[in-house]
Design a protein that fits this description.
The complex is a heterodimer of chains A (about 575) and B (about 180). With about 575 residues, chain A is of the alpha/beta class. Chain A is built from 24 helices and 20 strands. The longest helix of chain A has 15 residues. Chain B folds into two domains: about 80 residues, 2-Layer Sandwich (Alpha-Beta Plaits), CATH 3.30.70.260; about 70 residues, Alpha-Beta Plaits. By secondary structure, chain B is of the alpha+beta class. The chains are: A alpha/beta (about 575), B alpha+beta (about 180). Bound molecules: flavin-adenine dinucleotide, thiamine diphosphate and magnesium ion. The site of magnesium ion has 8 residues of chain A, from helix 19.
Chain lengths: ~575, ~180
Amino acid sequence: MQEEMTGAEMVVRALKDQGVEHVFGYPGGAVLPIYDALFHQDQLRHILVRHEQGAAHAAEGYARSTGKVGCLLVTSGPGATNVVTGLTDALLDSVPIVCITGQVPTHLIGSDAFQECDTVGITRHCTKHNYLVKSIVDLPRVLHEAFHVARTGRPGPVVVDVPKDVQFARGTYARPRDNQHKTYRPRLKGDLGKIKAALALMAQARKPVFYTGGGVINSGRHAAMLLRELVHMTGFPITSTLMGLGAFPASDKQWLGMLGMHGSYEANLAMHDCDVMVCVGARFDDRITGRLDAFSPNSRKIHIDIDPSSINKNVKAEIGILGDCGHVLEDMVRLWRETAARADKSALAEWWRTIEGWRAKKSFSYRPSAKLIKPQYAVERLYAAVKNRDHYITTEVGQHQMWAAQFFHFQEPNRWMTSGGLGTMGYGLPAAIGVQVAHPDALVIDIAGEASILMNMQEMSTAIQHRAPVKVFILNNEYMGMVRQWQELLHGGRYAESYTAALPDFVKLAEAYGAHGIRCSDPAKLDEAIAEMISTPGPVILDCVVSKEENCFPMIPSGKAHNEMLLGETVEDIGAVIDERGKALV
Amino acid sequence: MPDTSTSHYPAAPKVEPTARHTLAVTVDNEPGVLARIAGMFSGRGYNIESLTVSETEHASHVSRITIVTSGTAHVIEQIKSQLERLVPVHGVRDLTIEGEAIERELALVKVAGKGEHRVEALRLAAAFGARTLDATLNSFVFELTGATDEIDRFIAMMTVVGLVEVSRTGVAAMSRGPQGM
Ligand SMILES: Cc1cc2nc3c(=O)[nH]c(=O)nc-3n(C[C@H](O)[C@H](O)[C@H](O)COP(=O)(O)OP(=O)(O)OC[C@H]3O[C@@H](n4cnc5c(N)ncnc54)[C@H](O)[C@@H]3O)c2cc1C
Ligand SMILES: Cc1ncc(C[n+]2csc(CCOP(=O)(O)OP(=O)(O)O)c2C)c(N)n1
Ligand SMILES: [Mg+2]
């Protein structure tokens, strides 16, 4: 059936047809026709944010916690430039979002019109793909294609820029069709020959390890379940990146904890010493590899990834399997079972004994205190309080983020939302709101730092307006702790501008927004404060005053290899550990 | 240049040999596609030695872009993967690894001079098989089609006899044999 409507109505209609239920946004001149179309319906709910960056992170939180595409709507010019950070964040972390931007009318494009900017030019480098729709004829196709591109393959952000005259123009709407795209066809099934070769290599392994990442989360819940099956069948140890936490349950015996710069001793040494590495949906990021030429020097590497440019980008893989890890894992589980492949049992037992020796170091240990709240302790208590509830965790960026990754133990995928690739301070609160909108009855907590939270604090107002009862758990060390830690390591303890002076009173600030505020600085009262935070119905800020100069360990210093990692108790003069060249690195 | 033995970055630890590769890329001719490709090269720090583009199948809006680039084997692999990742890209072919491809460019070369130089310019042009497109009493415009190094040599010669201006198309390339893209 052919349906006539305006471009603005098509936007709203296409979003509905794509299964969008919530759109995060902020109005302005160039999107008024779309807002008018939203006004005339009540199926699609609009969540008004307080800054467009917030809309992008909220859409990310929504997407990552549901596996669906997150959606946002912003105006031209400043509306579009304000989402650039959020788009880049989604690009680096492979989060599927579609961003509709308004644009000045087509005949004014290029004239420096009011609130004109070259949105497709600016966002070309921070989107998976983007479109400027100059004719109503193209609009329905482009809108549907945008969702297809965002959702499939390696997911990512897509921008659709719609000039105002196109929003007013009338045309014929077309429903989504599942025609093949002319050029864009991501490959899903892995090459069976390579999968068999990989299994043969795994069956010979004496010191194997699974190294998994965000790709498992991207592929969906079924991929995480298949991963669990394969790991259990093989008996291999498994570690994951920051982005992959939750795909494999942290309570499982085979779990080694997160790897990388702030990962566990056992995970990093297992990576360093292994003879076969099975990488599933991870991208050999520099936080993982450390010094590249010393990275896992004696292992033969299998890399499963949907993006051909990820394979052999940083680290050469002996067997690169291009495909969706869900599909590939399915084949691997089936073939491992069929061929009754068995790894070398006694070698594996020996390998596990070595790993248990490393594990015994308890690399995440810290010195407890009866006077001050240690940030690690705060996360441990938070975990104890919420682990039996339906919970989702987001974070800001800094030490608190790493402590959250180390001390909060994730059992399920899609429960952990953090900005890994871009490391965007200000991500956590709007992301939490996005998660809460998708899961209204769940407990959603942003584990925050006092500096980061101020970057998108205005979104408290969004939480209040939309009755999103998010909890902000601030580990307040009065420092940009991660920056301070690096200054201690690399710049002789000269803390240039990393003290967060003139902090607001977070309790009063919460109250000013109409939320509930709590402050706690006594370890003995922490459980009580956490309980109050959880039981309070609306949004809450818990200002948890923690010890100020705690460092985040273990740590692989810049320019060092995995087996040169620093452990908390052993570090005395940290400045002496990093040489001049290491200091030049980030 | 930091000593890569302590580097944290994925910079090549050893100096590896680089090679020139000619890539043929077919793309959907949508607005901005050239900016996407050029932007990918500059954004990721790859070289472009030559780039030519034009529509080859008008009805289906398909253009062919020929890119001459250089890098280590690893970088060339990355360039191809990064190109293939772009949504409007149909396909990428590395003509250099498929055996010696045919590569041609066209150059317009203006020279000015009198007497001996003028005679010499004309003689060289004839030796290279260039066509004379314009002639005045003290100048010529030549057209030469050939491989890049042939054109380079021609221009070097013309410099001696009074080169004024050069305009080159960049490389058009095609594999040998019956196989199409
Ligand atoms: C302060 C700070 C410190 C950090 N420290 C650490 C640290 O100690 N340890 C750590 O791990 N990280 C750390 N990070 C995060 C780090 O920067 C990277 O974001 C992270 O390591 C990348 O995770 P990943 O490799 O899983 O890749 P992602 O960015 O999640 O990429 C996923 C990969 O999987 C592929 N993929 C996507 N979908 C699929 C699919 N369906 N099938 C198959 N493959 C797919 C993609 O192509 C890509 O290659 C830190 C970040 C910050 C901000
Ligand atoms: C937008 C942005 N600006 C700057 C940085 C650099 N940076 C990384 S961590 C950090 C400090 C964060 O401080 P806080 O939120 O208090 O967390 P803490 O490390 O103290 O836990 C800074 C400034 C960043 N990641 N993002
Ligand atoms: Mg702090």
